[in-house]
Amino acid sequence: MVGKYTGLSDSYLSVLKALLHASVACRRKLVVEWVAAGDLEDVTAKEAPDVYKNAWDLLKGSDGVLVPGGFGDRGVQGKILAAKYARENKVPFLGICLGMQIAVIEFARSALGLHDANSTEFDPETSHPCVIFMPEGSKTHMGGTMRLGSRRTYFKVPNCKSAKLYSNASFVDERHRHRYEVNPNMVPQFENAGLSFVGRDETGQRMEIIELPSHPYFVGTQFHPEFKSRPGKPSALFLGLIAAASGQLDAVLQNYGHENKLLPNGISNGKPSVKTYQNGNAIKSSNGSLNGVYSNGNGNGVHH
Ligand SMILES: NC(=O)CC[C@H](N)C(=O)O
Q1: Which of 106, 76, 54, 103 lies closest to 4, judged by CA?
Q2: Residues at CB less than 6 angstroms from ligand 1
Q3: How many structural domains is the chain composed of?
Q4: Which domain holds residue 235?
Q5: How would you label 152-161 residue by residue, b for 16+ Cβ within 10 Å and e otherwise?
Q6: Model-level pTM?
Q7: CATH number for the domain including 67?
Q8: Which residues of the chain have pLDDT under 70?
Q9: Ligand 1 centroid distance, CA of 22 (Å)
Q10: Does 66 map to a domain?
Q11: Residue among 67, 73, 101, 183 whose CB has most ligand 1 atoms within 8 A, to mutate
Q12: Mutate to test the pocket of ligand 1, among 179, 181, 222 (most ligand atoms within 8 A of CB)
């Protein structure tokens, strides 16, 4: 998990729970390594080389990378580097809200060669604004301009991984909390270079889900799928991340959406899959492993 850690906020806790729900469904032990995004940046390499090395070691040792939502530009470059690392090394990646926006910025810089591409949230003067302030918003009334709550996303590419994970639904309703969005004018350029905008709002102009079809699992969402994840009913895209990180994505994509919302037929060892658990606490699964959440380091799992 590559974020900006000044303590665990509610949104990180929701993301953590969603990872846990998905891990239980996949019958894998979840180990979360907390990487402070700024520690991955060049400036840290100069100022605190040990911290920099430790952050990159943690990232490179991970089976999957998640960049959650956020505001403000601290750590943005580190998040971009994490997305680049995941994209180039085919490591499963899920970017949520800001996490999707930074993945789009990274793609614009690396794949389109637009070196100053940015969100106007971080560089209002960029000559390649690939993430922009939503036109209906008002910059002078920040409080009231956030696009909030449940909104509908329509799948535009029926065979994409996200649509399959959502049981081939034609649309999904997920929760939102953002002011910026992918610049729709740049979408054709991105799509020509291989980044697919598989989910959009009802107008087709607002990008809700990105995917890289050429990558094992590289998904970003403008919405926050973590808010609808529940024990026994993991969020589809978190399930995709954990399944991809544990070598089970193909099996999940083949079977998911038929009857059961959890993994059918015990993919890992043929025994019945775990169906429910209580209170989000660690449980013993049928194969005897402990499906808990483990963090490195001090009590709350946060490294400063
Ligand atoms: N929740 C988020 O991640 C918000 C992302 C970004 N800061 C925006 O306002 O669009």
Answers
A1: 76
A2: 69-71, 97-98, 121, 177-180
A3: 1
A4: 2-134+146-259
A5: ebbbbeeebb
A6: 0.85
A7: 3.40.50.880
A8: 6-11, 136-144, 256-304
A9: 24
A10: yes
A11: 101
A12: 179
